[in-house]
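Work Package 3 (structural annotation) set out to generate three-dimensional models for the target panel prioritized at the project kickoff. During this period the team completed the workflow that converts sequence records into discrete structure tokens, so that structures can be stored uniformly alongside our sequence database. As a representative example, we reproduce one entry of 402 residues exactly as it appears in the project archive.
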Amino acid sequence: MINENMNFSGLDIAPGLLDIIAKLQFTIPTPIQQKAIPIGVAGQDIIGIAQTGTGKTLAFGIPMVQRLSQSDTKGLIVVPTRELAFQVNETMTKLAPAFRIKTVLLMGGDSMGKQIASLRTNPRIIIATPGRLIDHMHRRTVRLNNVNILVLDEADRMLDMGFLPQINEILESVPKERQTMLFSATMPADIVRIADRHMKLPVRTEIAPQGTAAELVSQEIFVVRGELKTTILLEILKQYTGSVLLFTRTKRGAARVTASLRGQNLSASEIHSDRSMGQRKDALQGFKTGKYRILVATDIAARGIDVDGIELVINYDLPDDPSNYVHRIGRTGRAGRKGHAISLATPDQASEVKSIEKIIRSTIPVSSHPVVKTEQFSGSGAPKLVFSSAKFFRGGRMRKWK
């Protein structure tokens, strides 16, 4: 829970930075910010375990800017995806300029020449995806010998995406005498090994138990045959008026679902690794501003979607990795607001649902639908229907279908 009696002035933040935070209208720090900022400002290593959407960027961004303003060293922030890099840079460029600290964004899909030109302006904060950073290191267009503060954000996702060799190369290239802040939603064995080898007596802060689903997000599942998924999706969308984040397993699936939604005159866009950087920026910015009501995403692209006020998350496909369910539904129910998550499953996916329930340590209600024929899970021990088709969950409360 957020301590409403706490404000940023009690977190050892310098007055000049407090003024900037106030102008940005940040008033009450989130739990991860409350715990991590004083540790970061003191220069200690941190392992922050917190769900997606809990305010981790400010938790490491404020200490980095404050400490860099007191030296001539550099900071490096490594993130898994272009979208997350873009959004971290948005936040850092709000904090850093007041101290005449420049940032540079190094990510795939963007012009290498443009990035090299930006590096020549001597930026003090580098925000990078692992692959593009390694490209610059090998070209000798970026040097890490003056990095005094290193942040590994969404570390578990970087490992899931196969970036462990790149992360190890980066860790071997930065000075050993540095501050390291590592943030992750989970703590797999590879991250424990990284911490043991490359961090100095890190302070561990864990805001929620690993795998815990967002407290303010109600959940339900509809079990339907595959050919009825689009039909029930369109019915569900009639019941909601706010923004909707929809997940598919594959890029092809995202394109197909987006085309179906647009065919019904619904404002939708897609975001996945086959889209150009310009298309991905347009989709994300359009979703933020309301140009697109529905954003269709794959898991790889989803870590950069940091948007407040998402009313509904729909798992059109269950995730390949059950732990991604937590990251997906954590996109709604933020900043004290209630949210809702609906998953569509086929009758043969009982075991996949059980795997998700094991991670979130709770049972997800299985719903029937008054318009579209729903099924039950096949096989013994399958979840049972827990409430009738007359009602459904919305915003954390049972409501009647219209």
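Residues 384-402 have pLDDT under 50 and may be disordered.
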